[in-house]
């Protein structure tokens, strides 16, 4: 079953990657069930944002708090690979928790979606939904 991703989310991810280049952009994917309906940009607080990302911890806390209060659920995260491929890097594989989160990776105007699990990352098919 494919994950449904809003066309607004696709536009947001591509725009954020362009804006941040040559640094990595990052943020949070929000929605319900298997539907990603919003992407929220976050500051990349990693000391080397040209090659790594770290989502601002306060943005994560705020997103989880809003979800507890009935807002959109945190389904996963996104980041860009400004000079790489739209697939998990060795660093991504090393830091990902096997919690079933969705990861979107943007590179060269291409977006791929992945699910982190016990066996590492698995490619996640998706369909673009209208706004």
Describe this structure in words.
The protein is 24% helix and 37% strand. It is an alpha/beta fold and 131 residues long. The chain has a single domain, classed as Cytidine Deaminase, domain 2 (3-Layer(aba) Sandwich). Strands 7-6-5-4-2-3-1-8 form an 8-stranded mixed β-sheet. The protein is globular and about 35 Å long. Residues 3-131 form the MPN domain. Keywords: Hydrolase, Metal-binding, Metalloprotease, Protease, Zinc. It holds the Pfam family Prok-JAB.
Assembly level = single chain
The tally of strands reads: 8
What are the secondary-structure elements, in order, as H or E?
A: EHEEHEHEEEE
So, the CATH homologous superfamily? Cytidine Deaminase, domain 2
Sheet-strand content, in percent, reads 35-45%
Q: Biggest sheet, in brief?
A: 8 strands, mixed
Task: Indicate the structural class.
Answer: alpha/beta
The shape is: globular
Residue share in helix: 10-25%
Count up the helices: 3
CATH topology: Cytidine Deaminase, domain 2
Q: Measured on Cα atoms, how large is the radius of gyration?
A: 14 Å
Separation of termini? 20 Å
Strand order of the largest sheet: 7-6-5-4-2-3-1-8
Topology:
Layout: E1 3-6, H1 7-20, E2 26-32, E3 35-42, H2 57-68, E4 73-80, H3 90-95, E5 102-107, E6 110-117, E7 120-123, E8 126-129
Parallel strand pairs: 1-3, 1-8, 4-5
Antiparallel strand pairs: 2-3, 2-4, 5-6, 6-7
Keywords: Hydrolase, Metal-binding, Metalloprotease, Protease, Zinc
Pfam families: Prok-JAB
Protein name: M67 family metallopeptidase
């Amino acid at each position: 079953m494919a994950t449904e991703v809003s066309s607004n989310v696709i536009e947001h991810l591509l725009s954020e990657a362009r804006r941040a280049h040559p640094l990595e952009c990052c943020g949070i994917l929000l929605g319900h069930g298997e539907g990603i309906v919003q992407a929220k940009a976050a500051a990349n607080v990693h000391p080397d944002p040209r090659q790594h990302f770290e989502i601002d911890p306060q943005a994560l806390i705020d997103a989880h708090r809003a979800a507890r209060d009935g807002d959109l659920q945190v389904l996963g995260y996104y980041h860009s690979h400004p000079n790489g491929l739209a697939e998990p890097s060795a660093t991504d594989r090393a830091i990902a928790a096997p919690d079933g989160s969705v990861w979107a990776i943007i590179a060269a105007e291409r977006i791929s979606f992945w699910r982190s699990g016990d066996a590492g990352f698995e490619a996640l098919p998706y369909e673009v939904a209208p706004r």
